[in-house]
Fold this protein.
Amino acid sequence: MTMSSRQQQSGAAGSYRRGDVVLVLFPTPSGGTARQRPAVVLHNTEAADTAISVVALSPRKPSDGQAFLIERGSFESARMGLVSSLWLDAQQAFDVPAGLLLRQIGKCPYELLDKAIRVRRQTLASVERALRIEDLD
Amino acid sequence: MLNETFVNSVMPPEDLRKLQSLVRKLAASNWTTFAILRVRARRQWLDGAIDRLYADTQLHLTASHSREQSETLRAALGEMEGHLASIAKAIPFDRKLGPVMRPFTHTFQQIIRLHNATRCGMASLSLRLAGPQPIDLETLHHAATDILDARERMSESAPGWADPEMDIYDYV
């Protein structure tokens, strides 16, 4: 049994691998029923983890930074289990309580994941440099 | 661990903040030291009825409490009751939140039972689960805080997630 099928059967937060595309429960601002939204897991996780770092897959093109468009019908989109064109902006990572992750729907191709993570590292490095400069000032 | 999960769909942010505040007050009052309320904790999902939760309650009160302490607790729980009722009402319509809500639900059930006990004029200034784990209000508070934080992070980091066109992923 694959990890994916196991998670889908249980419907509970389990262990995920970096690059897994998962559905996250997203509370709507209007107070309606929570929605399912796709995201990419950034780090390997264990079942005991209470929070998981993910990158949102969003239909809106980020105003700044380097984002990657995953077009509907492309190889990447199919591999990731997506059904619409979405943007992957690795600079916008955030932690989600593990309980909000529903299940895995696909896998981010290695090349795309590698590029996204490289951008993220560059961004983090530049932020770190900026902070050091501020400290010196 | 909770969930934005507390999620607007289950509890509006303002209600969640009120609940957090109440939980903090209860935790600060050290109310768990006064008496023991044993609850037969059934780890089942809220299938609708608070009345059913009441029916499942088993109370064994073993200590007395002061009138002032009792009044304070009763007031706090009374304030909380409205929030709990709205939560219980909302949950059956959003079962997708089950995995996220379950830890809270367990605690909510106990609080509801505790409130019920106080309304019956019984001494119940503390509560302990019949199970291996005592109720942990601090954990609840942290979980609720985590959910609020997660909601804010999601809104900031994934603004496009609110777009209705993304609802197609409810059917993936």
Remarks:
- The interface with chain A takes residues 1-10, 12, 93-94, 96-97, 99-100, 103, 143, 146-147, 150-151, 153-163, 165-170, 172 of chain B (CB under 8 Å).
